[in-house]
Amino acid sequence: MSTPARLLLLRTGKGSHEIWSNGRLALTVPFHCKSRHTANGILKDADIDHKI
Fold first, then answer.
1. Which InterPro entries does the protein's record reference (predicted)?
2. Could you tell me which residues come within 8 angstroms of residue 20 by beta carbon, excluding any fewer than 6 positions away?
């Protein structure tokens, strides 16, 4: 089991996205993610072991 993700909101992006960071990695995340595949890809990029 991995440690909990400590992501902080850096800023709102252009359109319907937000920029989140854990200090070493920045992630672009959509406000309304309709695809579970996209959501799982974001979780994988953030090193979170949970699947939707």
1. HicA_sf
2. 7, 8, 9, 10, 26, 27, 29, 46
The secondary element (H helix, E strand) that includes residue 43 is helix 36-45
pLDDT digits (tens, 9 = 90+) for 28-44: 899 888 899 999 998 89
Cα angle for residues 28, 34, 39 (degrees, 5° grid): 50
Q: Which helix (H) or strand (E) holds 45?
A: helix 36-45
* Whole-prediction pTM: 0.71
Distance CA 23, CA 31 (A): 21
8-state DSSP, 46: T
